[in-house]
Amino acid sequence: MGKVAVVYWSGTGNTQAMAEAVAQAADGALFTAAEFGPENLAEYDAIAFGCPSMGSEELEDSEFLPMFESVKGQLADKKVALFGSYGWGDGEWMRNWEADCVAAGISLACDSVICQEAPDDETLNALAALGRTLAA
């Protein structure tokens, strides 16, 4: 089993709840976006990134996006998964984020998990499966 990091940014607590579910299932280390950077990458075989949709369906750009941009080029040999919550829209921010990952040579280990507002039981089960996939 590989070491898993779960890195997230949360404004309302919904994405934090999602991150905690992934970390618990993966027996992983939990980091906020401000606590994680390129210096942490060598320690982990797999990383789950969680960020809610902000503004016009974008990643949070003061802490999360700069951190993600700083590590993105070094993720090609890692197992990576994405998750996040949204308040409106249809998940376009996640599709854009997935496309950005593919363009950067990042292979996603499993389907991304998104939910509207707080995660329900079905979402929590999907997050646990995501965590187990990364830990395997």
Automatic annotation (TrEMBL):
**Domain (Flavodoxin-like): residue spans on this chain:** 4-135
Q: Which GO terms describe its molecular function?
A: electron transfer activity; FMN binding; oxidoreductase activity, acting on NAD(P)H
Q: Which PROSITE patterns is this protein grouped with? A: FLAVODOXIN, FLAVODOXIN_LIKE
Query: Which domain of life does this protein belong to?
Result: Bacteria
The record's annotation in InterPro entries points to: Flavodoxin/NO_synth, Flavodoxin_CS, Flavoprotein-like_sf
The chain's coiled-coil residues are none
Pfam families reported for this sequence? Flavodoxin_1 (PF00258)
Report the protein name in the record.
Flavodoxin domain-containing protein
